[in-house]
Specification:
- The chain is α/β, with parallel strands linked by helices.
- It has 7 helices and 10 strands.
- It has a single domain, classed as Alpha/Beta hydrolase fold, catalytic domain (Rossmann fold, 3-Layer(aba) Sandwich), CATH 3.40.50.
- Helix 3 crosses helix 4.
- InterPro entries: AB_hydrolase_fold, FrsA_esterase, PET_hydrolase/cutinase-like.
Length: 280
């Protein structure tokens, strides 16, 4: 296995060891909107590069992980870029999510033209690598895993969640998929769409996906006012707040984040919000 040396990416607030006795998965201090909107969370983060030559089933990528060992293991997240794109197109998500207490692997796909079903399989292969063979596998709780992605990578995250019901969460961003029905999906799913997306219009992608997922799975839909298909390719505060909150709630079982999901975001930046509130 060829893994590059770790490169430190330090968060400004420093890690805080806070673990409630009644929830062994709770990580980090009590959340605030200001903390979620900040460019980094409470954990300092390091990263390692993963060569495509050292893995099978996906094209390598980059792992971001909290440097702290005081809080034990963390949930793991695999993220796929979109059609014709590389991980660098959405790489801001890696340190952003990891700094809130997750081990994140941002993948390169086998080819940039891979379709959603292939990307879904690659996300699962990346999670298997992360938990079984990676240099940071001891930091990851293999029972608490999630997937995310942009465009066809978002469609791939739906495929992965459909194929592996043991996942704790899925976060498709501007997802694209020819399959519009996900009635079999049981994984808590947050879909973020762009109101002005002309490549994966929300009326024919995000909204049908959301509507087809059973409410019993827990689901949420955030539509960003005026945003195009490419909103995930630059740091987006609303997306970050909702993604972190969703992942903390369902990967870490941290009910302190319910307040950011129900009733959810509102205002000029959000053109639509739907969710299966109240959370159970």
């Amino acid at each position: 296995m060829t893994v590059a040396a770790a490169v430190a990416v330090t968060a400004p607030l420093g890690a805080t060891a806070a673990q409630a006795a009644d929830n062994p998965y709770q990580r980090g201090p009590a959340p605030t909107m200001a903390a979620l909107q900040a460019s980094r969370g409470p954990y300092a983060v390091s990263q390692v590069s993963v060569s495509s030559l050292s893995v099978s089933g996906f094209g390598g990528g980059t792992i971001y992980y909290p440097t702290s060992t005081a809080d034990g293991t963390f949930g793991g997240i695999a993220i796929s870029p979109g059609f014709t794109a590389y991980w660098s197109s959405i790489s801001w998500l890696g340190p952003r999510l990891a700094s809130h207490g997750f081990v994140v692997i941002g993948i390169e796909t086998l080819t940039t033209l891979d379709q959603p079903a292939s990307r879904g399989a690659q996300l699962l292969a990346a999670l298997d690598y992360l938990t079984q063979r990676s240099s940071v596998r001891a930091r990851v709780d293999a029972s608490r895993l999630a997937v995310a992605g942009h465009s066809m990578g978002g469609g791939g995250s739906l495929e992965a969640a459909s194929d592996r019901s043991s996942l704790q969460a899925a976060v498709p961003l501007a997802p694209w998929n020819t399959d519009k029905s996900w009635t079999e999906l049981r994984v808590p799913t947050l879909i973020v769409g762009g109101q002005s997306d002309t490549i994966a219009p929300v009326a024919s992608h995000s909204i049908p996906f959301y509507n087809s997922i059973p409410g019993s799975a827990e689901k949420s839909y955030v539509e960003l006012a005026g945003q195009s298909h490419f909103f995930p390719q630059s740091a987006n505060t609303t997306t970050a707040v909702q993604a972190v909150s969703w992942l903390k709630r369902f990967v870490d079982d941290d009910t302190r984040y319910d307040q950011f999901i129900c009733p959810g975001p509102s205002g000029l930046l959000v053109s639509d919000y739907r969710a299966t509130c109240p959370l159970s």
